[in-house]
Design a protein that fits this description.
Blueprint lengths: L1 E5 L4 E2 L4 E9 L13 E8 L7 H15 L6 E7 L3 E9 L3 H8 L10 H14 L6 E8 L10 H13 L3 E7 L5 H10 L4 E4 L5 H13 L1 E12 L4 E4 L11 E3 L2 E2 L4 E9 L8 E9 L5 E8 L3 E2 L1 H6 L4 H24 L3 H11 L7 H15 L3 H16 L35 H15 L3 H15 L4 H10 L7 H11 L34 H11 L5 H19 L8 H10 L8 E2 L9 E2 L1 H15 L3 H8 L5 H15 L3 H9 L5 H16 L9 H14 L1
Parallel strand pairs: 2-17, 4-5, 4-7, 7-8, 8-9
Antiparallel strand pairs: 1-3, 3-14, 5-6, 10-12, 10-13, 10-15, 11-14, 15-16, 18-19
Helix pairs in contact: 1-2, 1-6, 3-4, 4-5, 5-11, 8-9, 8-11, 9-10, 10-11, 12-13, 12-23, 13-14, 13-24, 16-17, 17-18, 17-23, 19-21, 20-21, 21-22, 21-23, 22-23
Amino acid sequence: MLQLFTDRSAISTEKAVAVDVLVRIVPDIPAEQAERPPLNLALVLDRSGSMAGEKIRLTRQAASRAVESLLEGDVISIVLFDQSVNVLVSQAQAREKARALALLSRVEVGGQTALFAAWERGSHEVLTTLDKQRMNRVVLLTDGEANVGETRIDPICSAVSRFAGQGVQTTTLGFGGGYNEDLLRAMAASGDGNHFYVESAEQLAPFLEMELCGLRATQGKQVRLRLQPAPGVRVEWLGRVELDGDGAVKLSDLISHCPLQRVLRLHAPAGHLGPLLKVGLAWTCAREGAPRECVSILQLPCVDEAERLALAPDPVVVAQVSVAEMARLRELAMEELKRGQERSALELLRSGLRLPLLPAEESEDAEDLIRTLERGDYGSGHKKAAMSGHAYSSGHGSAHYKKGEAHGSLPLREGRLLRTAPSGGGRAWNRVEGMLRGLLYGGGSGEVPSLVLATLQCLRRQPFEVNSLVQALAQAPVLGPSPGLARMRAMHAAGRPWNQLGGDTAGCGALRRIAPLLVPHCNAPRPSLWREVAVATALTHQNNAALVASLGTAKLLWEMLGVGGVPASDWYLQHFLEWSLDLEDGRSYPSHGRHFRGWRGTLCQFLSAAILEARTKNLTVPQVMLGWGSGPYVFEMVPNWLYILERHAHEPALALEMAVSNTVESHSLGALVGAALGALHGPQPGWALAPELEQELALVRDRWF
């Protein structure tokens, strides 16, 4: 659970050195394998006059979705406030949903903003039914300044901290441009909760849904990190930290599939022998309410300075040091902005974009903040920075809450691909059409065309938005069994958020839905492509091997769309491994094929072993399928796909025939091989489609090309 990584793996015998240390906390138990903790929740909702119109309508809608998601054992209270405070629903249980929904439907706006009194009443509602085995949380939503009753930050935060000490956490959502971001960020920090900036009304439901999703997937709360450096060793935190009264670092809750990361700098004397640092992690088990702790010790060998400098820095640590530096620059930029130094603030932020290995989503977050300031919207700039700063100080990356989608909460390492924009410029329509046509033609009848069509129609209406994609896939007509899709639909119907829909399975079903996601990027490639692929995969497959397979496939298809001819035979495997290895989390899987029976390892390990052996023995495609298997499992589907391309990519008709002949999962392999062949060669003779699919391709061309 508690992992320590250093930029270089040794210290110096000759001189004092600085060692950058990444502290990573990875919750052990996937959410689907652990019974989720019940909720004890108070929604404290602003209904002051400024919430009139679309704001109050969407607030009612978002709160109603929260009520509808209640399960047995959950408790919810709803507190409304303007200049006065009204408890609309007090400690209702799941069986009382209908009454709560009816009351919510009649909520209208009032007058001013008694924020503190409302938060306090909501906290007492939670405290009355406080249970260590529940997630006890107040969620405050406001669009304005506290202007009735207590309005000072320090007394309010002192009260929030007292309740947090009793087990009642506070999350704050600031809506629009009129609220005090300093107050709401400070309340969230004091209350061990999250802080969101809801820039537009449409973001309210996704943010509230993400908060509830995080609560349901929480494994540990009241998370604290303590450091004990060895004598003579000094610790310097990189980036802002929040400390509790005992000097421990406060971190966000432990949420399944959502690692926490902080970086620090150790200043170690020359020739130090023995441990450098003891790191202790303490938390309260969310389901049992019992205290837990673990310890990790950092010790590095001493080498001469030349040898130390020759050691290659760990790119993951370098990237997280850049994230910390970007967080520091953002804080400095906001201070400059408060002094009226707009140009200096922008220069600081732009300098951060040049930091080494800065993750793509962090760059996007910074670029969004720069654009906001360049158009003179300094109020929104401060609020975006406050949300990003709170996310970073609590152990998440600053872009963790971007667009209300928890991209980081997946069983996936932050590999180089996720930090890299798609290569090259645009992609020609002829090749893109070939990829889509080959995908649809090779997939044949069944679910492939309907799912591809649903994805394309969703993307054609709007940019990638995970909840819209969920809705599209849930409504797509499908023929034949599809366990992953069936689970997704059942979980969606039960009201689960997007990152609880997929199961922990290394099936290949998601691979058939990946190619359409490339289309909106073909004229304007954006770094978000890889995150979109990961999220789309996770809707049915929240599994590291499945996610790695989808990302490697997407990267390979993207490159095939841009190459000048058929690549060398070893290019496919080499390129897949180059971009997929550092996405793997080390989990091992079995091979189901008769030739590799008893083998266990990661997907990339299997690809290397199986394909290299096949090359050495000059095996045919039918021979490797007999040895590896050809069923709906990524350890069978991906090696077959790569090996067919390696041997027959220059012969499209033969390659596609190999994919669908004597293959257990012929629709999936045919779709993958067809997409790759079309990306390389363009549309092939005979690849005619049903009229509705031909019409969709024409609409895709008109929309993006």
